[in-house]
């Protein structure tokens, strides 16, 4: 599991960035979780466990779901900060 801690964690922002590029090129937002999962599984096959398909799928799912959570958490935090600043300036 050592290679997952090193490469798997580093792949999370890479997958997030790739999904953002897909969205900028016209991918509807409702397909971002599925595309993140697919990119995670592909990265699992090519980088994390190319010789062990079950492990590649598992690790790819973890990377894909983590990428979705990273994006969602960042987006929600930024929205909360904007709303907080908006309410402060309205007083």
Number of helices: 3
- Sheet-strand content, in percent, reads under 5%
Residue stretches low in confidence (pLDDT < 50, at least 5 long) are none
The helix content, as a percent range, equals over 70%
Number of discrete domains: 1
Distance between the termini: 52 Å
Strand-and-helix sequence, N→C?
Answer: HHH
- What is the C-alpha radius of gyration, as a whole number of Å? 16 Å
Largest beta sheet, briefly? none
Content-based structural category:
mainly alpha
Total DSSP E strands: 0
How would the global form be characterised? elongated
Average of per-residue pLDDT values: 82
Oligomer: single chain
Characteristics of this structure?
mainly alpha; 91 residues; 86% helix
Written description of the protein model:
- The chain starts with a helix and ends with a helix.
- Helix 1 (about 1-25) packs across helix 2.
- The chain has three helices and no strands.
- With about 90 residues, it is mainly α.
- The mean pLDDT is about 80.
- The protein is elongated, with a radius of gyration of 16 Å.
- The longest helix is centred in the C-terminal third of the chain and has 38 residues, at about 55-90.
């Amino acid at each position: 599991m050592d290679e997952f801690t090193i490469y798997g964690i580093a792949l999370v922002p890479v997958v997030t960035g790739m999904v953002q590029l897909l969205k900028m090129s016209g991918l509807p937002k409702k397909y971002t979780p599925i595309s993140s999962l697919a990119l995670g599984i592909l990265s699992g096959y090519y980088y994390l466990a190319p010789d062990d398909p079950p492990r590649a799928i598992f690790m790819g799912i973890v990377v894909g779901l983590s990428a979705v959570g990273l994006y969602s958490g960042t987006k929600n935090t930024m929205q909360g900060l904007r709303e907080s600043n908006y309410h402060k300036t309205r007083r």
